[in-house]
Design brief:
single chain; mainly alpha; 2 domains; 6 helices; about 75% helix
């Protein structure tokens, strides 16, 4: 749905004449007529006022359907997943560092054995 169709539909729904709607926005009724026919697009700065006058959101005025907001449960599970992923990453780093430490200790022992003949 285009902006002109949305304006026309909501004005009709609210029972507003072009003159009444124009007065609410401090524009001429001819301007509103041009919007409704699609011959002109409202100025971007007027969009919030138009949406307010039509009792709709800016997204609705632009014909954008509201995206389904995430529920708290979904958000919580995403956070848990990210935390678990970080814990797993830290665990892997710990294992790698532990193995590196064991290798260095073993090399150190082997170097001492070779050096002192133990």
């Amino acid at each position: 749905m285009t902006i002109n169709e949305i304006i026309k539909q909501h004005c009709k729904k609210l029972g507003l004449t072009q003159k009444e709607f124009a007065d609410m926005l401090s524009v001429s009724d001819k301007t509103v007529s041009r919007w409704e026919t699609g011959n002109q697009v409202p100025d971007a700065l007027l969009m919030p006022d138009i949406a307010k006058a039509l009792k709709i959101t800016i997204n609705e005025l632009y014909g954008i359907k509201d995206i389904d907001t995430k529920t708290e449960e979904n958000t919580t599970s995403e956070v848990s997943y990210k935390i678990n992923k970080r814990v797993l990453y830290a665990y892997k780093i710990g294992i790698i560092l532990g193995l590196v430490l064991v290798v260095f200790v073993q090399l150190g022992v082997n170097l001492n054995v070779n050096k002192y003949g133990f």
